[in-house]
Structure formats: structure tokens, C-alpha cells
Amino acid sequence: MLNITKQTIDDLETNLNDFDPSIRAQALAELVQLSEKGVLPNAPESMVANMHCHTFYSYNAYGYSPSGLAWLAKRRGYRLMGIVDFDVLDGVEEFLLACDRIGIRGSTGIETRVFIPEFATREINSPGEPGVFYHMGIGFTSSAVPGPESKILNTMRQTAIQRNLGMVERLNSYLSPVIIDYDKDVLPLTPNGNATERHMLKAYLQVAENTVPDTVEFWSEKLNLPREKVTSLIKDPPVFQNTVRLKLMKFGGVGYVRPGPDTFPTVEEFHKLVLKCEALPCATWNDGTSAGEQAMSELMDLLIGKGVVALNLIPDRIPSVADPEVRRHKANNLYKLIELTQKLDIPLNIGTEMNSFGQRLIDDFDAPELQPVQQVFLDGAHFIYGHTVLQRYLSLGYQSEWAKMHLPSRKERNTFYTRIGYLTPPGTAGLDRLKKLILPQTPEEILVTLEHAEMK
């Protein structure tokens, strides 16, 4: 038996999140080797999933890389995990290959904001911003965007940079003498230059800590809060960080500028990017309390007409609510939403995000509010994994011509890819099963083959 210390394991797991991809790859290889030798036991697999985790390629509050998230799932026994990053696809290959290597059912996606002119007067899921909609694509198998649609992704990245630079200019003016340099103070906090508000926030907090004699007094003045309030907030860094972000960077803050119709891509433009990659346009839902989300049936009909085939939600936003009455109200909104999505044949993609301190590593599926709908969540997770694995290995994903011919309706495709997700193990075991398929085959023939393999 190898003599491996806890410090050795801790160092390897820390290296999994290093900005250098070669260091991450070496750390993962060594951890997998230790696991396979039985030196590093992992938790037994549980029927749980987190299909919406941001990596450090956009912002992960705990610093996780794609490889780090895959390993987290393995160590803790999560059956499925998916990554989603803002405006980039940088982590796709690394995450899927890591999932293959360690045996995790994985998926990858991208999140952005779009403008919906039909809802221009109604707030949807971006607070204080009527018409602006957090939107996603899921089920990608490569970071490469073929053809002219690659320009859409490049434009999204460049537009985000310009928004950031404008915010830094406004905040520097207001927070002086605490000022930051975007290139020197912000970009080093990212592995590939895709900075977010949270990176800029971290930079401002660091500069203030290092340069201001009395940080409590400084933030008390700049946030317009009593000194004793700031003293209390600073003792809880996650709460303090969120307070600064809300006060300065979000709606009403000095760094904020209200977006217009041209600030973000249209739904149609974003869908061109997603469909070119044979991935799945995925709407998002907050909690059902905004004017736009109270018209969810109208919104979903509109988005389905534009190509949406799935819906993302963050379940933990409900059981984490302290007020019992508010929690009950939001739970009822969730149940109504799920009733609607089932009627519309729209599977769910769920997860905790991990892009803000305090968010769970995985949803508590046993929470009283989530227990009644946990199977819907699990079916959705297996659905997107089923699409991903068939698209990666056989080019028979949800958007393929084969699927359109054999599975013309959303309901038929949902049922098929969900079943594929349950029947196909991750990594080499799943690939071995899929290699036994003699194509072309019908969906029924593929399922029969995989079911037989499952019983052996």
C-alpha cells in the first residue's frame, strides 16, 4: 500500500484548479491513479446531479476548474454533473475528457444574456432590466464553433470586455483612491481572459484592503451604510461581497448602465450559434415572481417557436428561503412551472451555479420542497447526458438529421435521450457499449442493444 499523506492529496486537488492546463492534467492523472489503486477511496455513487456549475473560465466562487469539478463529482459520488460558463465554451473538452477518465456522466453549456423585444416592457429574470433574459445553450461536445457562427461567439466575448471596461472606468471615478487596472488587476484573476463582474469585485476588494488605512470607513462612505453595519458585514465575506456588488455594480449602482436592445445578442442570433454546434437552446427561470415569469406560458410559447427545447432552473433558490410563507409561494411557482414544462414536453436542466459564495455544491434533493419533483430533475439530467454521449460518439444527438427523421416530436426525443442517459455508463464503459451498435439503426434498435448490455 502506497504511503500517501493527506497533504499530498490536498496538494494534488489544489493543482486541479491551477491556471496551467498541464499542471491540472498531471494532477488529475495522479489522483485517478491513486483512486484506481484503492489508496484514495471515493464516496459511492448517489442518484444526484448538478448540471449547472460555472467553472473558473467564467467565475466559480470556490475556484473550480473543469477538471476540478469533474473530480469533485467523483469524490462525492455525484452521478451527473454539467458545466455552464458565461459567454465562452473554453472548458468543454477538458471537462468531458475528465469525466471520461474518472467515470462521471457529464454535459457542457454556455450562458449569456439576450434581449427579447416582445417582452421589452416586462422584467423577466434579469432584475431591473425589462426585456433582458438570461439564456443558455446546453449539450455541446466541442468548444469549436464551425463556420461564420464563430463570429457570434467572438462578438459575445468582445462585447463583454467592453461592458467591463466601461464599468471599471465608472467605478474608478467613484471609488478613487481605490482604482484598478483591468489588464494588471483583473485579467490575472482569470485563466483565459474572460473576466466577469465578480472578478472586478475581487480586484476592488483586494486593492482597498491593501491601500486604504481604514477599510471600514472607506466602504461605509462608498456604500452609504453605517460604520457598524459595514463592520458586521465584513465579518461575513460572502455577504459583504454580494452587498458591494449589488450596491455598486447592479441596477441602480454607480457602475451600472441600463442595457438596451443592442447590448446583447438576439435570441435568434444566439440560437444560430447553439444549433451550429448541434447543441440545445435552453431557456432559464428564476422563481416565477417577475412580470415576465408570471407570463411563463406566453414566454415559453414564444421561445419554443424560436427553437428552445429545454429549460434551466436553480432548485436551491426555494428551500434556502428563510421565510416559510415566501418559501411556500416559490415552491408553488416551481410546481406550476414543472406542470407547464411537462405539458410542453420541455425537459429540465438543474443545478446550483456555484458562481456566488454560499451556493451549495449540489442541490438537496431530499428537501421537502424538492422531494416531489426530484425524479423530473433526474430525468432532465439523464436527458442532456444522453444527447451528449450520442452526439459525441455517433453524431446522433438531438439536433441530428437522424433524430429529426426517426423522432420528429419533442416528446419522442425526450423519452429516447433520457433512456439513453440511463442506459449508457460514462467513459470507456459507455463507449464500449456504443461501439457494438451497427449503424444505421432505429431508436428502438439502439435501445434494445443497450438494454441487453445493461442486463449482462
Distinctive features:
11% strand, TIM Barrel, globular, 7 strands, alpha/beta, 19 helices, 51% helix, 3 domains, seven-stranded mixed sheet, 456 residues
The overall average pLDDT, rounded, is 95
For the termini, the CA-CA separation is 33 Å
Question: What share of the residues lie within helices?
Answer: 40-55%
CATH class of the largest domain: Alpha Beta
Kindly name the structural category. alpha/beta
Write up what this structure looks like:
Helix content is 51%, strand content 11%. The protein has 3 domains: 1-41, no CATH class; 42-145 and 277-444, Metal-dependent hydrolases (TIM Barrel); 154-248, no CATH class. α4 links the parallel β2 (78-86) and β3. The protein has 456 residues and is α/β, with parallel strands linked by helices. The protein has a 7-stranded mixed sheet.
Give the gist of this structure.
It contains 19 helices and seven strands. By secondary structure, it is α/β, with parallel strands linked by helices. It is globular, with a radius of gyration of 22 Å.
